[in-house]
Amino acid sequence: TLATDLIGAKFAGGSNGFEAHLQPNLLSLRWRREFEADAKPYPRFARVAEELWWAADRIAGVLSGGALVIGGVNVGYVNFVPTAATSPRAVLGKYFVPGAWIGLLEPAASLHHVDVSWRTPEGIDLRFRVRAGSADLEETRVIGYQIETVAGASVQPEASARDAVQSIHDRLQEFFKGLISDTARAEWGYHE
Predict the structure, then answer these.
(1) Within 13 Å and on the Cβ side, how many CA atoms surround 16?
(2) pLDDT by residue (tens digit) across 118-165?
């Protein structure tokens, strides 16, 4: 039997590549892209949300009172872009619209890490992060940049967490669409 004063849970190991985590007042879902030849394709948001709410319902079922209180919603996407380029103009200038990068970086010889976050007038927190790094792609270590975009907001007790997740995801999609260049759309195969 499971204790009803659950302080954390993790669902993982299924064939779908999802991993769900619960901590007090936080439910998160992660899908990791595998780069093997037989890797599963990226699931669209509806599939990710379906897995998230499946996990939430299972967790709520073991809590005393049967209710899962969600006080905040965050939705994020993390991608890896392989590139040998290191200059800010070569990285940010190629993949993002001109307003996405900071003029202070213009004279820099290489880009290590850019992390910018802010709150919109609607109360939504947005984050844009670019970090130099490496990844194992099909058994080969490749250098490049990790690109992360995140949106989040508090959820009022009377509000629907499901509606909040959908709303935050929609806002994140708008943010990302306005952030990337036509070159990035073409190279990354981006479509709505």
Answers:
(1) 15
(2) 999 999 999 999 898 888 777 788 888 888 889 998 888 777 888 888
pTM over 0.85? The answer is no
CB 74 within 8 A of CB 151: yes
HEC states along 111-132? CCEEEEEEECCCCCEEEEEEEE
Q: Which two tokens stand for residue 13?
A: 């190991």
Distance CA 44, CA 114 (A): 27
Q: State residue 75 phi and psi, 5-degree precision.
A: -130, 130
Sequence-distant contacts of 183-190: CB under 8 A, at least 24 apart:
183/94, 183/95, 184/94, 184/95, 184/96, 187/95, 188/79, 188/81
Say how far apart CA 191 and CA 181 lie, in whole Å: 13
C-alpha–C-alpha distance, residues 151 and 125, integer Å = 5
